[in-house]
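Entry 14. Two folds queued back to back today. First construct below, sequence then structure tokens.
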Amino acid sequence: MTELRRELTLYGLTMVAVGSSIGSGIFLTPSQIAGHLPSPLMIILVWALGGVIALAGALTFAELGSMFPQAGGVYVYLREAYGDLFGFLYGWAYLLVITSGAMAALAIAFAYYLGFIVPLSDTAIKVIALLVIVVVTMVNVLRVTAGGMLANVFTGLKLLGIAGIVVIGLVWGSSETMSVEPAAREPSSEGFLAAFGLALVGVLWSYGGFQHASYVAGEAVDPRRTVPRAMILGALIVAVVYLLTNLAYMFLLPVSEIAASGSVAADAVQTVIPFGGTLIAVVIAISVFGTAGIFALSTPRIYYAMAEDGVFFRRVAKVHPRSRTPVNAILLQSGWATVLLLFWGTFEDVITYVVFMDWVFFGLAGAAVFVFRRTRRDTERPYRTFGYPVTPAIFVGIAGWFVINTLVERPLHAWVGLIFTLVGVGVYYAFKRQAGRAAG
């Protein structure tokens, strides 16, 4: 069988980790977060906590990535720690809920922000969103280096754009806007943890992505070393970028105005530059397009790995004979994302159940480090988690608290994700029965 081509370097993998995180979140979630936590200090704290969680996760997953340097990433970790069913459910949830939904949302966001520059009808927005999915799909089908180049170029461009926002905010803004808050108030003591947890939904949506470097380990150069380093570097870069960006926002707008804004970055920059809204719309369009391209590059490798293991449609494991990319896995994900464009809800609704399911599996994957330390003591580990066992315990503990809080505060969103995922249990056993009959 044709094998995947190993061409992704440390720089390319780091750009995948950074680019998968810095997408629409830093532009779309600040108003939602400010609505839950109407205090500059609390906003900085929740974004800082997100950075700590992401770094703890990257440090934890880095050990797993050094142990299993093959395509599939978290899917492989769950499968090896808990069995085929858990690995399958992760891939199933990523296909039907998490990544396809995120791709559809990013495509719509691209078209929406393009509409700030060139007026578009609702039909035109849908058509452009579909075109975004088609373009990023074809780029990643052609060759993995083409997808990696897309990640490098667009991640670099959006980091330059965000750097512009940070410079404008910190140089021309003022810290006085952080204290001029006549309507601001701290959340009540009874509701603080709940409010903090709900604000964390947007934060974790924004930070999620460092693990994408592990999905393409099968196409990385020296994956045992480059994959762990890429995840850790990616988490650190994203944390610094997000903290500086939020400071810039609050140096330009009071928190009450951030909470009321539908386009925080544009409104913030426009206080200094009259045409700032248009410039920021360009930056956001570039950002979400690049992130959609990274999702088309990285997560289809999960479905490819599942098909290779015989727990998914065998055709999904097909590798293009010329470009040597998992062509059917890429087309499957993009096809489902296209379907979701026709049945979409609000941005906040979508990210709530997407992030909820994502962090159910993140918590399980983080706990896998403890499992392997006990069951695979002799397995080679070029990298060992810094601060073990405290670091993975922090990650798993916060992930568990976040999942429980979301289940209590947003039960509809959580149960939709859970039911959607649990349907995969029946699908998994159907594949197992089919495989058993074929073997017999």
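Second construct, same run, same settings:
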Amino acid sequence: MTDTPDHINAPQVILSVESLAFGGDGVTRYPEGHDSAGKVVFVRGGLPGEEVSVRITEQRKDFDRAELVETLTPSPDRVAPPCPLYGLCGGCQLQHLAYPAQVRIKTDWTRQFALRAGFPAEMVKPAITSPREYGYRFRVRLKVDPKGGMGFNRAGSNDVIPLDSCPVMSPELNSLANLLSGLFSSHPPGVPLELETGALEGKGFVLVRPLAFGKKRTGGYLHRLRKTTEQLRDHFKETGIGIYYNRPGLKRRGADSPPGSLVLPLESLDLTLFPGVFAQAQLAQNRALVRTVVDLAGIRTGTRVLDLMAGMGNLSLPMALAGAQVRAVELDPLACLNGRHNAVRAGLEVDFANFSAETALKDLTTAAPGDRPEVVVADPPRSGIKGLTELLAKLAPERIVYISCNPPALARDLKALSREGYRVREMAPLDLFPQTFHLETVSLLARS
């Protein structure tokens, strides 16, 4: 006999959803007369304006969490999710919300974070809508369990939800995933692992990587990963799919790129993406991102630009093509090599330096004024630019263009930059990931 979780027997509560929190949960409060009247409750799956019956699953000091039992008064924006795994898989959070409402919500979230940082919400432009609601991802990370189940993690868990296809992945990426799923079903790896995959125009790559959780990275574990990599190489050797253990090795290739490299089209420029190097997962919205950055940076012929965390040149090279003198800084040596490769192929003189953003800023603060950048573009990881704001202020560029994929970190960094004398002039959110709570924001700051 097994114990029944307490929340299964918890009484149901009827609540009215007020708004949608960043992350996708409905926000409501216990009504007057309830023992916890006024306390916030987060309801996964609830939408603004709905009356819902919920069961409390978690109680904390400042808020509770609840599961949706029944929607008593549905929102006019509620739609049927097309994915049969929605709610189980942790990849999407907004498939039950009509897409125009998703874009409005993401605009509202950006305005809330602007206010939190102390700037007027009016500076936030309406979010740039994705031309595709589904089928837009050309690269994705997949998990594989020891028994060969391949897919995404279950919501709130490290368990793998096996998938046959994913509606947000492109048809080519789904085809690659189906091939991999069949292989792992017949040849289980025996250990948990992660696959970074990408597919575009008949080419693709698979990077076999250890997981941060699960079995320790002992010699036996790593041996199984390498064996799995070799099995995949044998299977895909006659195709355009590049298979790697972790990522390609570093070596100077001249005009050559590693097998499995993809070509990402921009408006007047094609960029090569090496396997293992970061790129935005949606082509159309990446083009919109590049246009937004070039526009907000105010590029003119000869504008001196410092591009921090430049990657493979996604922003550096379009700015150079628009006439800027660009210094690109990238700490990852493979991404830096990828950027140099793209600069040579495009015939653009962009200096890709392989060191940290902190080092670049410290060096440039001692340079002559005519050698310092007029514009700094920063495209950091989710952690943001914490620790760099004082150095940016010392460098004193006229404008800072800050690309962020994490609104809480963005709000923190905008506050810090405002203390250093910079003011936000415009914020442009872009919906790069429909059906999820994720969004990208481009912010323009200028010296007061």
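Quick look at the second one. The radius of gyration is 24 Å. The longest strand covers residues 63-73.
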